[in-house]
Design goal:
alpha+beta; Butyryl-CoA Dehydrogenase, subunit A, domain 2; Butyryl-CoA Dehydrogenase, subunit A, domain 3; two-stranded antiparallel ribbon; globular; Acyl-CoA dehydrogenase; flavoprotein; FAD
Length: 400
C-alpha cells in the first residue's frame, strides 16, 4: 500500500500538518467513506435527538450498512485484515468531530464490548459472538462502573459472581453503561467471591434478573442511552464467562487500549468545535466586518489550532507504539489526561467566539461544549491518569 501526499490546503481544516496523509491509500479511503457517511446521513439526525435525549435507532442500520464495525479485528468484519491503530484512532476522531454521542455509541460497541470478547474470550467465544457484532446484527455494551465505584472499582468492585456448578450467579449494580438499554450482549465485570478476582461475563439480552433503566436528566452525551443496571440472581453459564480474564490485571489490558480511543475522541471534539468557530468567525459581522479579522478572535483560534496540532502529534505516535506492540499504560494515560484537558480549553474558546449564540443548539457548539465534560471525566479522570503517569516516571505510587 502507498501513502498519498497532498497539498496542505486540501486537508481537513484542523489537520494543519496533514497527519491524515500518513494513512496508506486503502485506509484513507475508509476514512473518507466514514466522513461522507457522517456528513450526509448521520449529522442530520444529531441535534433533534440530542434535544430529546433519545438514541436514534436508525443509526444501527446506517452503521450496519457502512461496514465500519469490526475493522480492528482480523478475520471479523468487512475488512478481513485488521486495520492499523492509526486508522482506528482517526475514525474515532472523525466520529467525534461530528458528534461525541454517536462516537461513544460506536466506541462502546466496536471498542469496549468487541475488544473485551476479542481479548478476553477464547477462540470459540470469539467465533460465537464477534461475527454478528462486526455485522452489527448484535450490539454490545460494557458494564464496569458502579453506583458507588468509579476510579476505585479495581479494588472495590461490589458486583459479585458466585459459581454453582456450570453456572455463575451475578448480583449487584452498574451505572453509566452506554447502549445497555438495547444491547444484545453486555459484558459485565464482577468479583468472584471465592478468589476475590474480577472476571468478565457476557450477559445476553432478556436474561432473567438483568434490569437496565435509562438514566435521565443528563447535560452531556444526551444521545447515548446510559443505563443503571440492577443484577438480581442473574444466572450466566460458564460458557459465557470470558475464559482469558482471570484478574483485574487482564481487564487493565483492555482499558489501556480503549483509553487511547477516548483521547482520539477528545481530539475529534476539539476539532469539531474549532471548525465551527472558524466558520462562524468568517461569517459573523460586527462593526462592519467579519469578526475573524479581529486580533482577539484570531488569538483564540490560533491557540485552539495549537492544542489540536499538539494533540495530533501525541496520538499519531501513540498509535505507532500500539501498532508496534510496545505501548504501556502510562502512554495511554498521558494521552487521555493531556488531550482531554486541551479539548476543554478549545471548546471553551470556541464557544466564546460565538458569544451569546454559543448557547443555542442550532449553532452546534453548545453540544460540543457540554459533551466535552463527559469525555473529560470517563475512562479515568485527569487525576487518576496523572497518578498512573506519575508512578511510571518517579517509580513511586501516590495512590491512596
Amino acid at each position: 500500500m502507498t501513502t498519498t501526499t497532498e497539498p496542505l490546503e486540501d486537508q481537513l481544516t484542523a489537520d494543519f500538518y496533514a497527519y491524515e496523509t500518513l494513512l496508506p491509500d486503502e485506509e484513507r479511503a475508509i476514512l473518507l467513506k466514514a466522513r461522507a457517511l457522517l456528513r450526509d446521513e448521520i449529522k442530520p439526525l444529531v441535534n433533534s435527538n440530542w434535544a430529546k435525549g433519545e438514541f436514534p435507532r436508525e443509526l444501527v442500520g446506517i452503521f450496519r450498512d457502512s461496514g465500519l464495525a469490526g475493522l480492528p479485528y482480523e478475520g471479523y468484519g468487512e475488512h478481513r485484515p485488521a486495520v492499523s491503530n492509526l486508522l482506528s484512532g482517526m475514525l474515532a476522531m472523525e466520529l467525534s468531530r461530528t458528534d461525541a454521542s454517536v462516537a461513544t455509541f460506536f466506541g462502546v460497541h466496536n471498542g469496549l464490548a468487541m475488544y473485551s470478547v476479542h481479548s478476553g474470550g477464547d477462540q470459540e467465544q470469539r467465533d460465537r459472538w464477534l461475527p454478528a457484532m462486526a455485522a452489527m446484527d448484535k450490539i454490545g455494551a460494557f458494564a464496569m462502573t458502579e453506583p458507588l465505584g468509579g476510579s476505585d472499582v479495581a479494588g472495590g468492585m461490589r458486583t459479585t459472581a458466585r459459581r454453582e456448578g456450570d453456572t455463575w450467579v451475578l448480583n449487584g449494580a452498574k451505572k453509566w453503561i452506554g447502549n445497555a438499554t438495547f444491547a444484545d450482549y453486555v459484558v459485565v465485570w464482577a468479583r468472584d467471591v471465592d478468589d476475590n478476582h474480577v472476571k468478565g461475563f457476557v450477559v445476553e439480552k432478556g436474561t432473567s434478573g438483568f434490569e437496565p433503566a435509562k438514566i435521565e436528566g443528563k447535560i452531556a452525551f444526551r444521545i447515548v442511552e446510559n443505563a443503571e443496571i440492577t443484577l438480581t440472581d442473574v444466572r450466566v453459564p460458564e460458557a459465557n464467562r470470558l475464559q482469558n480474564i482471570n484478574s483485574f490485571r487482564d481487564v487493565a489490558e483492555i482499558l489501556r487500549a480503549t483509553r487511547s480511543g477516548v483521547a482520539w475522541q477528545a481530539l475529534g471534539v476539539m476539532t469539531g468545535a474549532y471548525e465551527l468557530a472558524l466558520d462562524y468567525a468568517r461569517e459573523r459581522r460586527q462593526f462592519g466586518r467579519p469578526i475573524g479579522g479581529f486580533q482577539l478572535v484570531q488569538d483564540l483560534l490560533v491557540k485552539s489550532l495549537g492544542n489540536i496540532t499538539a494533540s495530533w502529534g501525541m496520538l499519531v505516535q501513540l498509535a505507532r507504539l500500539q501498532d508496534a506492540g510496545v505501548f504501556r499504560d502510562e502512554h495511554s494515560s498521558l494521552a487521555k489526561a493531556f488531550v482531554t484537558a486541551r479539548m476543554r480549553e478549545v471548546v471553551a474558546w470556541s464557544r466564546e467566539i460565538f458569544g451569546g449564540n454559543g448557547i443555542l443548539l442550532d449553532h452546534d457548539i453548545a453540544r460540543f461544549f457540554a459533551d466535552a465534560e463527559a469525555i473529560y471525566s470517563f475512562e479515568g479522570t485527569r487525576e487518576m491518569n496523572t497518578l498512573i503517569v506519575g508512578k511510571a516516571i518517579t517509580g513511586r505510587s501516590a495512590f491512596v
